[in-house]
């Protein structure tokens, strides 16, 4: 018709005619990647045939990993819920510290641990901003359950965002819907990572921002990538190392001008944050750096070995160590691979970018922090933001490895990887869920209970001290001295003037960490403990005490402060005000 030969729909000639017409109109349809195979064109249902491999429709590429992610999140929430029959909560006391800062930001207009006193103890100011936003509508009731549920749902939403971004990044790097869905599926099925999204910590936020930054660099959207990197640095300081690495890559590939657009937002954010710290404490560094810093270049190889042998094996698909083999696909060239492969090796160095991002974050973290308790989520959460970019790198590597193999084995590496991930998720989802909920119960029965008791037994405005300074501060709503110094740096510096000017009525402390050198000057008025303790590997940390100055102490009778010295994890001194607190049975437990 119209001077053109007519060909049956689905024939090779019809396909060629369609593509020729598209080329003449300078228009490329979404299905332009369909190719003729074995004398016919396959394009039915949710799968299409391209060359010698299977290609997924775009809708399935993005929807399938999200469905897996929702299923894994649901499994993590419900399968082990019996481990915590009580109130919802968080598995780390640090999550409650973040919530203290979120509430303080909302009420004071700046980051504050105690109302009216700016503080530099928040390692993730961006997460504190997010929690302040959630605290505005959900934190007004007497019960904390509403804001806790809002934070958990926000974390789940961030996890879904990570899965979608991982899918998009892998598709951008490979052009393959199967590789993209595989990358999203790997992130969705990584059960410890998914559980971290429900923890109330900044893990999912940081992982999302790292992937968005990598995606921006791959798309050559330099300014956008720079903004994501700046935000990632405000979520976790280790992201600064990722900024440096990506800036170097952009300098080499696109020049200094593009690199300047990548690094400038991070410079602005770093200067603003340092200015805040100088204003709040007189130091450009956060108080947490001085308290937790364990920087050691010589210890880095051993720390990396600990992570690779004791932490990552619990994350599908790294359980058997086979997941790492897919990284061979990221190596350049392919002369060592069998000749006659179905596809030429795509030589784009950008394929390694997600892996480089994850590795940079991981090494930066291990350079500063020592994972001394690998089974504990406390240390796992520090390295988890590196997991999504590493998994995307593994998926891309498996895809590239398959393209170097004979035609019938094109999808084998990625298929094996997904199978390992599915098996790993199926076998770990219940124990990971029970561990998660048991941690929450432990924190509720100790730190949260201490805070609630202090609020019920001390007048508003009474100053206290605490070794775990999150839930105690949040639930007591009392001015609190953090004796470890994360939120009260004067204690870390041993500031005598500060101690004398800030006497406390009571201290909530962990006897596994500290003990009084003057025990006769204190009396225990409350004890909180929990069973089957899994927050750390030290069962002695399952008990904490509340103590006050002994009533018959001569200084108390004279109305003078009682000085008590503590030793242990860190040495410090406190003045106890001559103030009688109501006493409960000291053996009160769960």
Cα shape: globular
Radius of gyration: 28 Å
Distance between the termini: 85 Å
Structural class: alpha+beta
Largest sheet, spatial ordering of strands: 6-5-7-10-9
The helix count comes to: 21
State the domain count: 3
Largest sheet: 5 strands, mixed
Report on this structure.
There is one protein chain. The protein has 590 residues and is of the alpha+beta class. The protein folds into three domains: 1-41, no CATH class; 60-216 and 274-435, no CATH class; 439-576, no CATH class. The protein is 53% helix and 9% strand. It is built from 21 helices and twelve strands. The chain has a five-stranded mixed beta sheet. The protein has a three-stranded antiparallel beta sheet with strand order 8-11-12, with no helix packed on it. A two-stranded antiparallel ribbon has the order 1-2. Helix 4 packs across helix 5. The radius of gyration is 28 Å and the shape is globular. 49% of the residues are buried.
């Amino acid at each position: 018709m119209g001077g053109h030969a007519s060909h049956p729909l689905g024939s090779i000639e019809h396909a060629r005619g369609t593509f020729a017409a598209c080329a003449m109109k300078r228009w490329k349809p979404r299905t332009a990647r369909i190719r003729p195979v074995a004398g016919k064109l396959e394009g039915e249902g949710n799968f299409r045939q391209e060359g010698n491999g299977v290609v997924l429709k775009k809708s399935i590429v993005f929807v399938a990993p999200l469905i897996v992610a929702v299923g894994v999140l649901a499994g993590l929430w419900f399968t082990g819920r019996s481990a915590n029959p009580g109130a919802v909560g968080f598995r780390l006391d640090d999550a409650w510290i973040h919530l203290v800062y979120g509430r303080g930001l909302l009420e004071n207009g700046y980051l504050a641990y105690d109302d009216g006193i700016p503080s530099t103890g928040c390692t993730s100011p961006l997460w504190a901003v997010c929690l302040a936003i959630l605290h505005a509508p959900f934190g007004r009731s007497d019960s904390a359950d509403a804001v806790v549920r809002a934070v958990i749902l926000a974390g789940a939403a961030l996890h879904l965002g990570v899965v979608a971004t991982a899918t998009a990044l892998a598709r951008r790097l490979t052009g393959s819907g199967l590789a993209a869905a595989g990358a999203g599926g790997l992130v969705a099925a990584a059960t410890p990572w998914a559980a971290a999204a429900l923890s109330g910590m900044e893990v999912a936020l940081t992982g999302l921002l790292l992937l968005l930054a990598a995606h921006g660099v791959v798309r050559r959207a330099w300014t956008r990538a720079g903004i994501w990197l700046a935000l990632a640095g405000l979520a976790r300081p280790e992201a600064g190392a990722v900024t440096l690495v990506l800036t170097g890559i952009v300098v080499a590939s696109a020049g200094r001008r593009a690199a300047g657009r990548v690094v400038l937002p991070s410079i602005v954010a770093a200067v603003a944050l340092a200015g805040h710290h100088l204003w709040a404490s007189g130091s450009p560094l956060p108080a947490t750096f001085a308290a937790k810093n364990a920087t050691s270049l010589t210890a880095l190889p051993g720390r990396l070995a600990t992570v690779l042998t004791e932490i990552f094996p619990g994350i599908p698909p790294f359980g058997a160590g086979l997941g790492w083999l897919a990284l061979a696909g990221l190596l350049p060239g392919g002369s060592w691979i069998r000749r006659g492969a179905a596809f030429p090796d795509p030589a784009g160095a950008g394929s390694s970018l997600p892996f480089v991002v994850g590795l940079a974050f991981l090494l930066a973290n291990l350079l500063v922090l020592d994972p001394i308790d690998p089974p504990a989520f406390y240390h796992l959460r520090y390295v988890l933001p590196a997991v999504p970019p590493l998994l995307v790198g593994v998926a891309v590597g498996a895809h590239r490895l398959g393209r170097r193999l004979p035609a019938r084995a094109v999808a084998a590496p990625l298929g094996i990887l997904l199978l390992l991930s599915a098996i790993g998720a199926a076998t770990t989802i219940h124990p990971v869920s029970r561990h998660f909920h048991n941690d929450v119960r432990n924190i509720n029965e100790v730190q949260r209970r201490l805070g609630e008791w202090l609020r019920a037994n001390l007048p508003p405005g009474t100053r206290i001290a605490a070794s775990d300074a999150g839930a105690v501060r949040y639930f007591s709503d009392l001015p609190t001295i953090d004796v470890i110094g994360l939120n009260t740096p004067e204690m870390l510096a041993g500031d005598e003037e500060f101690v004398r000017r800030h006497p406390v009525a009571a201290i909530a402390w962990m006897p596994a960490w500290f003990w009084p050198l003057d025990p006769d000057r204190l009396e225990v008025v409350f004890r909180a403990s929990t069973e089957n303790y899994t927050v750390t590997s030290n069962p002695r940390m399952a008990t904490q005490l509340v103590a006050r100055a002994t009533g018959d102490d001569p200084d108390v009778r004279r109305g003078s402060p009682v000085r008590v010295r503590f030793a242990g994890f860190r040495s410090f001194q406190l003045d106890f005000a001559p103030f009688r607190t109501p006493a409960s049975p000291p053996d009160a437990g769960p």
